[in-house]
Amino acid sequence: MPPNSPDSSDPTAPPLNAVPVSAAAGYRMPIRRPSVAFMLSHPVHWASLGFGSGLSPIMPGTTGTLFGWLSFYVLTMRWPDVFTAAMWGAIIVAGFVVGIWLCDKTGQALGVPDHGAIVWDEIVSIWLVMLFVMPASFGMQLTAFLIFRAFDMIKPPPIRQFERRFKNGFGVMGDDLVAAFFTLMVLALWRVV
Fold it and tell me: Cβ-count burial of 181 within 10 angstroms (0-12 exposed, 13-18 middle, 19+ buried)?
């Protein structure tokens, strides 16, 4: 038997007609950095790239989170009768559900399931954090932002395990949701202590 052919007695050997996982999932060769033209080529990309915030050449996840924080603050302060806690709750739930599809489609187009430029997950998750933090001082909002970013970047267990297990839009959205949950837990404990 040739040295590079799979052994039929080895249950872990891929079949001869195996397709790479990324190709089977609909992913293509990765795009290193998406452009404005890519973002504007489809409304799905426009949203999942955070309306341009994900195109930042430096720390796009942080830039997307900043955009989410700023949008939450501005909308809530400008139209408090419209952007109530109940409205934000509905927006966040809808944003999460739709985000699974948005992030998956853009991930396929970029060739990477959780490309760094996809920041819709950070936006929805920081909205969730701000929903529970507000009203609060700028210092408290900044603290919540920094704790969330730390959890999102470091990805301590179980965030990292969640990210590794789910490699589609649900995984992209879900690991940031877990980071938001841990952020809120830390803030709650901080207030108690």
Answer: middle
Distance between CA atoms of residues 55 and 50, nearest Å: 8
Determine the distance from the C-alpha atom of residue 184 to the mean position of all C-alpha atoms in its chain, rounded to a whole number: 17
- Residue 52, exposed/middle/buried by CB under 10 A (0-12, 13-18, 19+)? middle
pLDDT digits (tens, 9 = 90+) for 153-170: 998 888 777 777 777 889
Q: In angstroms, rounded to a whole number, what is the distance separating the alpha carbons of residues 19 and 15? A: 9
User: What's the longest Cα–Cα distance across the chain?
Assistant: 73
pTM recorded for the entire structure: 0.82
Which uninterrupted H or E stretch holds 141? helix 138-154
Q: Over the stretch 39-58, which tens digit does the pLDDT of each residue have?
A: 999 999 999 999 999 999 99
Distance CA 153, CA 29 (A): 25
Work out the pLDDT band at 5, boundaries 50, 70, 90: very low
- Nearest CA to 69 out of 15, 125, 107, 10 is that of 125
